[in-house]
Design a protein that fits this description.
With 171 residues, this protein is of the alpha+beta class. It has four helices and six strands, in the order βαββββαααβ.
C-alpha cells in the first residue's frame, strides 16, 4: 500500500496484489478480529469501520474490494472515505453550488445580452466560487483530522494480509 501522499485526493485509494486464492483471502478477513473495528463482508466487498465508541465526525471508513483475474493471484482495492451519509451530503452540497453557479451564469448572460447591469449576478457567482473553495477546504480538514484513524485502518489491513506474499505492482 502506498503512503497516500497525494494531496489533492479527498478519498485516497490503494491497490495490493497478493499470491493467494480469493477464497483464502476472503477467509482471512472473515476470521479477522480487531477490538477497534467492525468488519462486515458482503461477497467480495469488505467494510471496515470503527466501533461506535471511537467514531468522531471525521472518522474514516475503509471499503475493500477483493478480486481475482488469474489463478493464484488476488487483488485488493481499497478506498478510504467518510461515513457514506456524510459523503453523500457533501457531494449534494457541491452539486447544489455548481447548479446555482450555472443558473446565475445563465441569468448574467441573458441580462448582458439585453444590455442590463450584471453586477449582482457576477457577485453571486463569485460568492459561489468562494463557497466551493470553503467546501473543499472543509473536506481537506476532515481528511487531516481523520489521518490518525486512517493509519490505524491501513495497519489493520497490513497485519491481516501479512501471511500472504505481495506482488510489486502497487499503485
Amino acid at each position: 500500500m502506498s503512503d497516500l501522499t497525494n494531496e489533492i485526493v479527498l478519498r485516497p485509494r490503494f491497490r495490493v496484489s497478493l499470491r493467494t486464492n480469493l477464497e483464502k483471502l476472503e477467509a482471512i478477513f472473515d476470521t479477522a478480529t480487531a477490538n477497534s473495528f467492525v468488519i462486515k463482508r458482503l461477497d467480495e466487498h469488505i467494510f471496515v469501520k470503527f466501533r461506535k465508541a471511537e467514531i468522531t465526525f471525521w472518522s474514516p471508513q475503509l471499503h475493500l474490494e477483493l478480486s481475482s483475474y488469474e489463478e493464484g493471484i488476488s487483488n485488493i482495492r481499497g478506498v478510504f472515505g467518510p461515513n457514506p451519509t456524510l459523503w453523500t451530503f457533501f457531494m449534494f452540497l457541491h452539486f447544489g453550488v455548481g447548479t446555482l453557479f450555472i443558473i446565475l451564469g445563465i441569468f448574467a448572460y441573458s441580462n448582458y445580452s439585453l444590455g442590463k447591469d450584471i453586477t449582482l449576478w457576477l457577485l453571486g457567482m463569485f460568492f459561489l466560487v468562494v463557497i466551493w473553495f470553503a467546501l473543499y477546504a472543509f473536506g481537506r480538514l476532515g481528511r487531516a483530522k481523520g489521518k490518525g484513524q486512517m493509519e490505524q485502518l491501513k495497519q489493520f489491513v497490513r497485519d491481516t494480509i501479512a501471511p500472504f506474499e505481495r506482488i510489486n505492482n502497487e499503485s
